[in-house]
Structure formats: C-alpha cells, structure tokens
Design goal:
Helix content is 45%, strand content 11%. It has 330 residues and is mainly alpha-helical. It is globular, with a radius of gyration of 23 Å. This is O-fucosyltransferase family protein.
C-alpha cells in the first residue's frame, strides 16, 4: 500500500469539520443541487448485512431519482449501512464509480421520533423533528409481483406517496422481497480495499478459495461434515505442498494512523471490512469452491456476487487474450 493511499484513508476517517468552518446551507445546496434549496433522501438504516444492504441502497438511489431528491451517503461499519455506524461511506465503497398491484398499506406514526433519537442517533443531525413531522410506514407486502406491469404500479404509487416539500426525507426498510427497478451492479468497493486485495492475490497465486459459511448447516450432520473436511485436507496435503499458515497481514495499513483506532479494532475484528476483503479474494482466486449443501449455506447473494464478478473477469480476460492473439497474427 502506497503512502498516498494511506493518507487518503486517513482523510476519509478523520472527524467532520467544526461548525465554525462549515459553509452556509445555501452554499452547500448550490454546490450539490444548483439551487438555494435542496431536497434530500436519507436512507438512515438498513437491517441486513453488507451484500444485501448494498443492493437496497441502490434501490433507494433509484427511488430518489424517481422523486427527484439528492441521496445522503449513510455511514458504514460492522458489515452494514446505518447512521449509527462509525465510518464514512467511502471506507467501504468507491463513490466516484457509484456516480454511475400489491397490497399497499400506509400507517402514520408520530411516536417514531423517540425511536429515531434513541436507536439511530438522528438527534446528531441538524433536523427539525417535532409533532408536525409526518412519518409513514408503507407496507408493500410479500405478495408484490415480479412482472413489469405490477412493478410500474408500485413505482407510481411510491412516487405519489413520497412526493412532498420536506427538505429532508428519512427512509429505511425492513425487507423488500422483489426489486422494483432494473437490476444494477453492486456499489463498487473502495480503492484502498481493491488495491490491497489485488496485491495479496498476486502474492498468493495460484490459490483455491473455499467459501464455507456455517449458516443453514444441519447441526446433526456437523460431525460427518468435519470428518469429510478432515479427509479432504489429508488428500490435498498428500498431493500438494500446501502452506496453510501464511499470514497475509494485508490490512495492516489501516493501523498506520490514529484516527478512530478503537472503532477500527472492533471493525477489523468483525465481518465488515474483512467480509468485503474476503469477497474480493474469492473473486480473484484461480478456483472458487463453495462448501457442501448439507454442511453450510451453499448459495447466497454473497456467493452470487462472487460468481457474477468471476464471470465478468473471465469474459474480460477472453477479450483481452483474443486481442493479443490477433495482434500477434498481424
């Protein structure tokens, strides 16, 4: 990792500027919206882990486009996206690349303010929340259809319900069963993570990546699974010279600055940055293997993203090799 990359991350994780240095609201609004007033959509909490939160955040960007609002980039950490997390959006994601007839029910809930303040630290933002604020709970229903006609109905419904004159719109989700908009690529990961993963992958190659996720494994089969795993490792060790104790230390560069050091220790000990880093290494492996169906979660959005990205890389390499061979003939 180059010194300039470390400095970029240090700046990303540095504390926000003091109020005295902050420009007036109308200046900020003109910069981002081109007018003295802006209308924002703030997706302040996503209940699922990073891979699914990534997908839901893209849906909220599409909702913001539908109702002509500017999206606020929510904090990240602990394998999630939430206003109560410790790190800016750029720590997980590459912002520059990102510039790229169901049962409807509506429930008004003014007591929601207490929950926002207590659980999501909304009081840390300069928002005017009082009894005149309108809170809606829109139940799309698990029976929402996948076909185009029903999706269009849903988009029209949301467009009508979500249009208002409020400067800031807070939005969250419990669960969205089916995508309402066209499928987009996941939000790309931050350059400091992709660079570190590429550097390590080159050191490790050739390597086999195995994704063994214990979720959904059948408890009564765990002993049998462990025995088969042990047997497989014996076969590998007898056939190949495996060094299974390589210390990668690929994320040590994150310790080179003092900003948010305690929170970073907690983050690196969890599944947030480490989960993203693992996904990048799975993508770059010579071979990718998922665990057996009975012993782990065989298929998930996480593994689907790995497989899709590996296919994209394979297509890119084929095109690249085809051009090289063509040039050699010429």
């Amino acid at each position: 990792m180059q010194p300039k990359d470390v400095e970029e991350i240090r700046v990303e994780l540095s504390n926000k500027p003091s109020e005295s240095n902050r420009p007036p609201d109308n200046e900020i609004n003109r910069k981002y919206c081109g007018t003295d007033e802006c209308k924002f959509l703030f997706g302040y909490n996503f209940v699922e882990q990073e891979t699914q939160s990534n997908k839901h955040f893209i849906s909220f960007i599409q909702i913001a486009q539908l109702i002509n609002r500017t999206v606020v980039l929510t904090n990240v950490g602990g394998s999630g996206i939430s206003s109560s997390n410790n790190f800016p959006f750029k720590v997980y994601y590459n912002i520059e690349n990102s510039k790229t007839n169901p049962n409807f029910t509506i429930q008004y809930n003014t007591e929601y303010i207490d929950k926002l303040v207590k659980e999501r630290r909304i009081d840390m933002f300069d928002l005017k929340l009082n009894d005149s604020a309108i809170f809606k709970q829109i139940g799309i229903g698990i029976t929402a259809r996948r076909n185009k006609i029903e999706k269009n109905k849903l988009k029209k419904f949301l467009s009508a319900e979500l249009k208002n004159d409020a400067e800031v719109m807070l939005i969250t989700q419990e669960i969205i069963r089916h995508p309402m908009f066209e499928k987009l690529k996941p939000i790309p990961y931050a350059s400091h993570l992709t660079k570190a993963a590429s550097k390590l992958a080159e050191k490790l190659k050739p390597y086999i990546a195995i994704h063994w996720r214990m979720e959904e494994g059948q408890v009564e089969l765990m002993l049998q699974c462990a025995e088969k795993h042990h047997e497989a490792m014996k076969i590998l060790n007898s056939s190949l010279n495996l060094n299974t104790w390589v210390s990668t230390r690929a994320l040590d560069y994150l310790h080179l600055y003092p900003v948010k050091s305690e929170q970073l220790q907690e983050e690196l000990g969890g599944s947030g940055i480490q989960g993203i880093f693992d996904k990048l290494l799975l993508t770059k492996a010579d071979y990718f293997i998922a665990g057996p169906k009975e012993c782990c979660r065989y298929s998930s959005t996480y593994t689907f993203h790995v497989i899709e990205e590996r296919r994209n890389l394979l297509r890119q390499n084929k095109r690249k090799n085809g051009k090289i061979r063509k040039n050699e003939k010429n």
